[in-house]
Amino acid sequence: MDxxxxxxxxxxxxxSAAKATDxxxxxxxxxxxxxxxxxxxxxxxxxxxxxxxxxxxxxNKELNRKLCGSKLVGDMSIxxxxxxxxxxxxxxxxxxxxxxxxxxxxxEKILLRAYGNKVSDGESFTWTRYHQSKDGRAASYWAxxxxxxxx
Length: 151
Known about the structure:
It is a single chain. By secondary structure, the chain is of the alpha+beta class. The protein has 3 helices and 8 strands, in the order ααβββαβββββ. The protein is globular.
């Protein structure tokens, strides 16, 4: 009986395994200026990547064209209840960081933890699932990018 109770307690306390649907889709970044599409990577369908699909129009058509579809998240794998082992690229800092993505307890949100060598030295931020039908901004706000469907 004691072994049963211990096993039951461990199963209840252990985080549930993540599913692709927890992370795949369109995500509005924490600054609400960009939308990233997360889905299976093009070359390795076992990994997850994220591509810039919407962002505030820069007013520069050449720059907009370069930014559209750029890969911002790469090489993520499901491990337990999270995506890990990959990276996120910061265009503002021209630097890539290690990345862990956790599902949040709040619906339609994910927590990202970007860091250099130590997770404890990193920065956390929240992305919210993006629904174009709920976006009240005018179409002219966004750069002209085709929204890439995840996966």
